[in-house]
Structure formats: structure tokens, C-alpha cells
Amino acid sequence: LVSRKMQAEDTIIEIKGEKIGDGNLHHIMGPCSVESYEQVSQVAKAVKQKGLKMLRGGAFKPRTSPYDFQGLGVEGLQILKQVADEQDLAVVSEIVNPAHVEKALDYVDVIQIGARNMQNFELLKAAGETDKPVLLKRGLSATISEFINAAEYIISRGNRNIILCERGIRTYEKATRNTLDISAVPILKQETHLPVMVDVTHSTGRRDILLPAAKAAVAIGADGVMAEVHPDPAVALSDAAQQMDIPTFDRFMNALDEYAPRVSMQ
Ligand code: PEP
Ligand code: MN
């Protein structure tokens, strides 16, 4: 059902007036994890100031180590929702448990399904039974075909509002955290009718190449970019090495907008 053969036109997903997949750029920015009201609020103001509409933030964090910060859970979703309402932004947040999907609908505008859960089929089905937009991230070692099949699990349950997100894959290369598979973008755009985004933070794991990676993403046809922003990355409870501080985020957005304007923001 996600195949271009089934639907020739691009799927357009409406989130807070943004039409993802309409050919314009729509970026998703925010902290890796929700840590406090103040932290999210500072980032949200910067996001809003740039005219962006989608605020990300992890409340349930699927960390590689069980000893790392696991997120604030529902309290994190409450903080996100409060801040997003104050700034008139949409909330994008990861849900990791199928049993939480229903409850999360009160807080999130986009259900994020993370790389580690791309083949959590019960979670995919649960998200497929809602009508909320789903941001589906590519699995750590998933092929493009496996990625498309994961989207098929969601759409086959009735939810057609799916955004695919390339976030890098595991290879032997150690210079970046993952290897950004940039060619996945035009392949996904050709093979499916869904919008495709690129997460430059988790794919590169390197603040110094976020901008060129984002330029590459939009040049090759992505519908938008996701990146992480924190008021003080050095003390962040997750992904301290690659989140941008707010002045860096401002410069990043200015440079990206100059390279690839977001176009008609009515
Ligand atoms: C995230 O975006 O918060 C995240 C954990 O990314 P990924 O699932 O791609 O590792
Ligand atoms: Mn992160």
C-alpha cells in the first residue's frame, strides 16, 4: 500500500498547517531528551522564532545501556505538550510500548517510532490503528526493503499518515556514529508515495558535519531534516556530543534556509 504503484501522487500529511510532502521543506527540531520544562521551553522558543512548526523531544528514551537516562516518561510528554501549546508547535515524540500508544495520543501530534523499534511489529500495528501521523525511523541495520515493510505494517492497519526517516545505518565506518545512507532518500521517494526526512544528528553523530549533511539531504530530495538542539549540550542527559546549542542552531537554520529556502510559509 505504500508503493508508488498503488498511489502515484505524493502523500501529503497535515501537521499544524504544515503540509509534509507538498514539495516544500518542513524541518523537525528539538532536544534529544526532555529534561525539564525550562530546557524544552528555551529550545521551543528558538524553534518558533525560526518559523518552524514541529518540536521533537524524547520522553521515553530507548538507550543502548540500561544505566543511561531513560527519559521522564509521561511527565516528559506533559512538559512537551505544555511547551508546544504555549508556542503553538506540534509535538513529535517517540513511543516505545504498544500499550502507551493510546495514552500518548493526548500529548503528541506525531508518534515517532525509533530505529530500535522499527521491527516492533506490535508497536507498528498499534500506531497503524490510530490516525496520528507516524514518523518511522529506519532500523539500525535495516535494508530499504525491510524499512518499507515496516511502513506497510502501519498502513495495512489503516493509518496512511507515515513519514519515513533515514537516520543512518550500521557499517564498519567509525568516523561517524552511523553511515548516512543518502541514496535511501531518492529510492524511498521513488518506491513509495510517502514523505521522507533525514535525521542528521543520529546519522552523523557529529556536530561539525550537521550542516553539509542537511544540505545533502535537501539536495537529494528529502522533505525535511531532523536535528537535535539543547540549551547547554555539555550537560545534556543524552547525546551531549552532537546536539547543537541555540546560537549554533540559529546559524545552522540560517545557512540551511539560505541554501534551500523553505518556501511559502503562509
Ligand atoms: C531519537 O530520534 O530520539 C532517536 C533515539 O533516534 P533513533 O531511534 O534514530 O536512534
Ligand atoms: Mn538523540
Question: How is the secondary structure organized here?
Answer:
Elements: E1 13-15, E2 18-20, E3 28-30, H1 37-49, E4 54-56, H2 74-87, E5 90-94, H3 101-104, E6 110-113, H4 121-128, E7 134-137, H5 144-155, E8 162-166, H6 184-191, E9 196-199, H7 200-204, H8 210-219, E10 224-228, H9 246-259
Parallel strand pairs: 3-4, 3-10, 4-5, 5-6, 6-7, 7-8, 8-9, 9-10
Antiparallel strand pairs: 1-2
The structure holds phosphoenolpyruvate and manganese (II) ion.
Manganese (II) ion binds next to helix 7.
Structure description:
The chain is globular, with a radius of gyration of 17 Å. The protein is α/β, with parallel strands linked by helices and 266 residues long. The protein has helices at 37-49, 74-87, 101-104, 121-128, 144-155, 184-191, 200-204, 210-219, 246-259; strands spanning 13-15, 18-20, 28-30, 54-56, 90-94, 110-113, 134-137, 162-166, 196-199, 224-228. Strand 4, helix 2 (74-87) and strand 5 form a beta-alpha-beta unit. Helix 1 (37-49) runs parallel beside helix 2 (74-87), helix 4 (121-128) crosses helix 5 and helix 8 packs parallel to helix 9. It has a single domain (13-259), classed as Aldolase class I (TIM Barrel), CATH 3.20.20. The protein is built from 9 helices and 10 strands. The protein is 33% helix and 15% strand. The longest helix has 14 residues, at 74-87. An 8-stranded parallel beta barrel has the order 3-4-5-6-7-8-9-10, surrounded by 6 helices. Strands 1-2 form a two-stranded antiparallel ribbon. Manganese (II) ion (MN) is lined by residues 32, 201-202, 228, 238-239.
